[in-house]
Design a protein that fits this description.
alpha/beta, six-stranded parallel sheet, 12% strand, 6 strands, TIM Barrel, single chain, 8 helices
């Protein structure tokens, strides 16, 4: 993978059309996790790490098993002395449940999405979503309750799926609610008004302006 130059997108691609402001940086290569951790550690800045495990319930053989996946990440964090600045998130909650046993001090974030192209909440024939590590939504009544049952402190939900009622339910269960990925300033302001705890975006400059408009302190 490190042979690839990833500093420029194909200008004819849909990705390039969606991110017209992206500036090329020729010569960039994929960093390893240890490269990234060293960069953060040596920067002297209070950067926090949200590490997403990229696997799916049906890709057995395409990557390592969830236990190995988690142990590799935790070992790298411990070597870099960055355990206390990291969290782990995933759509596939198996790794998050493993992390509770391997390194319970690292907080977990449960990711969800319900859309036509991807739906991690919809149950399979057995009544359980394969993404949720054996938990069944029918046993808990709502997604926030399911997230809490999985041991996550944070629920990171596709922004179009969040409703005021779900947000209220999540806060009642003392969950932090993050919405992803919000790039429209108008949507940012609406979600701030709704009371979300955080917004994931490709445009932090737009989010800072939206926060300023709403009178929020800027980091």
């Amino acid at each position: 993978m490190r042979r690839y130059d990833i500093g420029r997108t194909n200008p004819q691609s849909r990705y390039a059309q969606d991110f017209r402001e992206q500036q090329p940086s020729d010569g960039e290569r994929f960093p390893t996790l240890r490269d990234l951790l060293a960069l953060v550690r040596d920067s002297g800045k209070p950067v926090r790490l949200a590490i997403e495990t990229k696997l799916t319930p049906d890709n057995s053989g395409d990557t390592v098993d969830p236990v190995t996946y988690v142990r590799v990440i935790v070992d790298a964090l411990r070597e870099a002395n960055l355990v206390d600045r990291a969290s782990m998130l995933s759509f596939d909650w198996r790794t998050l449940r493993v992390l509770r046993d391997v390194a319970p001090d690292i907080p977990t974030t449960c990711l969800t999405i319900e859309s036509q192209s991807m739906n991690t909440v919809a149950p399979a024939a057995d009544g359980k979503s394969p993404w949720h590590a054996g938990l069944a939504l029918r046993d808990y009544g709502c997604v926030p309750a399911l997230v809490a049952a999985a041991g996550c402190r944070t629920w990171s939900v596709f922004w179009r799926n969040l409703t005021p009622a779900l947000l209220e339910e999540a806060h009642a269960k003392r969950l932090t609610v993050l919405v992803w990925t919000v790039n429209s300033p108008a949507d940012m302001e609406r979600l701030i008004d709704m009371g979300v705890d955080g917004i994931i975006t490709d445009y932090p400059d737009r989010l800072r302006r939206a926060m300023s408009t709403k009178g929020l302190p800027l980091p």
